[in-house]
Amino acid sequence: MLAAAFDLQAHVSDMIQCSICLEDFNDPKPCLHTFCHECLRSHGGDKLPGNELLCPVCRNSCLVPEAGISAFSLNFFINDLLFAQKAAKPAVSGLLLCECCLELNGGKKTDISPATKYCVDCSQHVCDRCGGMHSKMKSGAHFVIPLGEEMSSEMMQLRKRHCQEHKDEIVKLYCYDCKVNICCLCVVLKHKQHNVTEISVAADKLGQDIDEHVKVVSDCLGKIRVLEEQWEMEEGKFLTKAEKLLFVVREKGEEMKRLIDDHVDKLVQELQSMKLNYSKEVQSNKDKLQTTAVAIQSYINYANILKQKGKPEDLTHAAGELCTRATTLLQTDILSKSVKAPDIVFVPTTDEVNVSLVGGWIRKNSRGTSVLQI
What we know:
mainly alpha; single chain; three-stranded antiparallel beta sheet; 374 residues; Herpes Virus-1; disordered N terminus; 3 domains
């Protein structure tokens, strides 16, 4: 059980790190990949509302909202992971100070008690005395835990999710028409005729859809491995054949001696160029396959952690984009590209076929038609 908890901790640590600045997220903004707000602003540069913005990880495109990059929605699930991660870090030699005492002392660190607990409701490190006060608030007891307590689903579930439109209200419903979590006031004001249900009910249904998408997308990883092997096999056969053809060309050139040396060199250069170009094509396609594999694995990891650790609100919030992203991944061009090396043949000069001094290449084009290259 303890080993499993450590594995979860390491996996979550990877998920809450911004791939741009390589630090823990600060105000995380999502596609299915997430970045710090400021890092995303820096990456977007001079992008205006309505402009296309490419994800730095998977190159998936999205449009900048009308209110600018800052209007991208907060990734609540990742934000909750950050709070849980923060609470799970133990105090080391009293280096963590009580944040409440620091505020009361005007930020001065003199004679400040070390933090021993974490208030989940306030997202603050607190000392024993302040922790006791937080757990006895008149407005409602706060959830206070000892520092270093293992991160768990229960810890994250205790964080309440507030409505984006009505900050004092808790989201309890899901609108299928708008694909958003809403509070009771939202139903009355903006979603009267919409298909609305309890978040827990919607989460069960949308969770099944996500499971199906994860299964289909997971199957693509096997296909990618097969395609990579096919590209490598085709490249090996092509390069082997090319080496044999080089020998044939040089043998024919030796027969013609000095008279045809220039033409032999030309043919060799053309073949080397075809080899280089094809190897570049193979590497390019392998790189695309690997990029697709990374995007798919990232999708699977995110969806699985979301299902395991996310609240129903997290699941319903991300369900629509997860479904759309799965469809996009399955339609990636590289997965359907034909794995076939170009077919070239060396045609030596004969009485029937005059192809200059030594010979020439015959290469079949994409329609299967033979094209003679002198």
